[in-house]
Design a protein that fits this description.
rod-shaped
């Protein structure tokens, strides 16, 4: 039994369990939907990225223009083409210019990728490889001071050799942010090892041009008549330092690059191929060498949804016409990109949004189930715990689902049956109690009836004898009037005794209904208003609302009338009567307490205990009011038949009678 009780205590609440299950189901559906959407988007990215990857080597070769450089262009043109190939391969877009109409949104998405390029001569000598660099034609310090701005000699500055912070600053620059660069360092052929890098921004240079006097502007072309050097001097434009190693270097020279070019090599992460791990994609590309393996399976080529890795070789020939011509350049390119990661990055803002929508859907369904199904269930359970109290209708009852309506209907049906059964049990219990005390009550009743009927019968007998003996014929009408009055009094007494007998025997069935006890009380006192005014009584009401009760309206009215008439009868002239009805809320349900207090002399303790007995009267002012002495006994029986209780108590100013339903 203890184990069973322990198991019952561990059972979760319906709302909590339902919420967890709905949340789990929604999360599973959301994960499945997002997985399908991600795979579908990854497939689209795969097709687009694969197309771009397969044409990467050809496009890089076309962008470099190496096959168009002739001897007249010189070394500077060849070096420019080599650096342009590296710059193009590092910065090209990963989508074709013309996307299908359904994929225009993908044009604005940057795709994380790695690229690398290596340019070899025809005999396999490495000429250029991927890396961040600054390159262009230059003029020396002497040429710059002499006014020369456009140089013919080529120089390339390896940015990757700089410290990380300065390297990052150089990689962030481009041709649209820099007008002139001044680089100091050691020049070795076309390569320069910098010790100091300075620059002037394009925006500052343009601002300096605009501030020149009108005489400095060519009216025909709108261009400045000054050289770049003179504009910088006239505008007093400052030089910004990108890198400064400090200290003077031996054999250091200063070069000026106007309109410098930049190449960036980003996202260099480790790469794995056939069980070997390489520092980056460039290392993997260089490991392939200038001469590709004849076995195509040895050349990295992965085309999967999660990874595309392609290394291709493109040969560039000189313009000479030869059937057995050796390539002048060997161009090797490498691309690594993940379509699935690209899809994840594209859909990343959509994940929390759809998850929030799913969570909102769960909350809305939870709210609907709670209000339209679980809340009615809780109300019914609560009503059953509170001895089947009536469940008042709510404003949103019209929105309840069919199951809730059926549950309410069944509850009300069984509630009425149980109420009827309770009333029947109360009646049978009263009948049983009556049977147990029948003999004692019979003897007491016989004595009380004999006592009560003795006086009116004696009066009737004496007056009837007077009429028979023709005594005081002039008072004949008065004698007859007294006889009729006493006869009516005995008739009322007999009717009340019969009513009390039925109540105590449990032979009275209650017809319960909902009504306002406060309104009934006001109606009863309206009938007694004339008697109250004649005595100058003051009646005060204290009600807490309408005070709805579920009881036999006719019988409860009989109780209220008895309490009210006694209060009016026994209150001295000019006194006050206070009527109070309080709405109660208990574990068993709602109820009311009716209290009527009137001014007057207090009752003794014995009278308070016996005031509800039949034919009881105290030898005090209350006994002078007449009556049968059955009213309070009948009232008590009616209240107890309803399952309530009656009580009487002395107050500071008088006596209070109370009943609770």
């Amino acid at each position: 039994m203890k184990q069973r009780n322990r198991m019952e205590k561990k059972r979760p609440a319906a709302l909590g369990a339902l919420t967890l299950r709905m949340a789990a189901a929604a999360l599973a559906l959301w994960l499945a939907a997002m997985a399908c959407m991600t795979l579908a988007c990854g497939q689209i990215y795969f097709q687009l990225l694969l197309e771009t990857s397969l044409s990467f080597a050809r496009n890089t070769a076309q962008a470099s223009r190496l096959d168009q450089v002739d001897e007249a262009g010189g070394e500077a043109a060849r070096q420019f083409s080599l650096c342009d190939a590296v710059a193009y391969a590092s910065s090209q877009s990963f989508f074709p210019a013309a996307l299908p109409d359904g994929f225009r949104l993908l044009e604005s998405q940057s795709v994380p990728r790695q690229t690398a390029v290596a340019v070899y001569s025809g005999d396999g000598t490495l000429l250029k490889t991927s890396g961040s660099a600054i390159y262009g034609t230059y003029v020396t310090q002497a040429q710059w001071d002499a006014g020369q701005e456009e140089g013919e000699a080529f120089v390339s500055v390896d940015v990757e050799a700089l410290p990380p912070e300065e390297r990052a600053l150089c990689e962030e620059m481009n041709s649209f942010t820099c007008e002139v660069m001044r680089i100091t360092g050691v020049l070795e052929g076309t390569e320069m090892v910098p010790s100091k890098i300075e620059y002037i921004g394009l925006t500052e240079y343009m601002s300096a041009q605009l501030t020149l006097p009108p005489s400095a502007i060519d009216e025909a072309t709108g261009a400045s008549r000054y050289s770049i050097r003179e504009v910088l001097e006239q505008g007093d434009v400052p030089w910004h330092t990108l890198f400064d190693q400090g200290g003077a270097q031996e054999d250091a020279v200063t070069l000026y690059l106007t309109g410098p070019h930049f190449s960036r090599c980003e996202n260099q992460a480790p790469v794995s191929w056939q069980g070997e791990r390489y520092e980056n994609l460039r290392a993997l590309l260089l490991a392939q060498g200038p001469f590709p393996s004849e076995d195509w399976e040895q050349i990295p080529n992965i085309q999967r949804l999660d990874r595309i890795l392609l290394i291709e070789f493109h040969f560039l020939y000189s313009p000479e016409d030869s059937a057995f011509q050796q390539p002048e350049y060997r161009l090797a390119t490498a691309i690594e990109v993940s379509p699935l990661k690209a899809a994840l990055r594209f859909l990343l803002p959509l994940y929390p949004l759809t998850l929030a929508v799913a969570a909102l859907g769960v909350l809305l369904v939870r709210r609907a189930v709670k209000r339209r199904l679980l809340l009615p269930l809780h109300k019914v359970c609560s009503g059953m715990e509170q001895d089947w109290v009536r469940i008042p209708p709510q404003e949103d009852d019209a929105k309840k689902w069919q199951d809730a309506w059926q549950l309410y209907g069944l509850y009300e049906t069984h509630r009425e049956k149980i109420r009827a059964g309770q009333d029947e049990l109360t009646r049978l219990s009263a009948a049983l109690d009556y049977a147990k005390t029948a003999e004692q009550n019979r003897r007491q009743m016989t004595s009380a009836i004999a006592h009560e009927l003795k006086t009116p019968l004696a009066v009737i007998h004496s007056y009837a004898e007077g009429l028979q003996e023709h005594i005081a014929e002039e008072k004949r009408e008065k004698y007859l009037e007294v006889i009729l009055s006493e006869t009516e009094r005995m008739d009322g007494m007999v009717l009340e005794m019969l009513d009390l007998s039925r109540l105590e025997a449990g032979r009275v069935k209650l017809a319960r209904s909902e009504f306002s006890l406060a309104r009934m009380t006001e109606e009863v006192f309206e009938k007694l208003a004339l008697s109250a005014r004649e005595k100058g009584l003051h009646i005060q009401y204290r009600f807490t609302g309408e005070c709805q009760v579920n009881a036999d309206e006719g019988r409860i009215r009989q109780v209220v009338e008895n309490f009210a008439s006694n209060a009016v009868k026994y209150t001295p002239p000019g006194g006050a009567i206070q009527v109070e009805i309080i709405q109660l809320s208990t574990r068993r349900g709602n109820g009311v307490t009716f209290t009527i207090e009137n001014e007057g002399p207090p009752l003794s303790q014995e009278a308070l205990e016996k005031v509800w007995d039949t034919f009881y009267r105290e030898d005090s002012a209350r006994s002078s009011g007449g009556g049968t002495g059955l009213g309070l006994a009948i009232a008590k029986s009616i209240v107890e038949l309803h399952g309530g209780r009656c009580s009487a108590a002395n107050t500071k100013t008088g006596v209070a009678f109370r009943f609770t339903l």
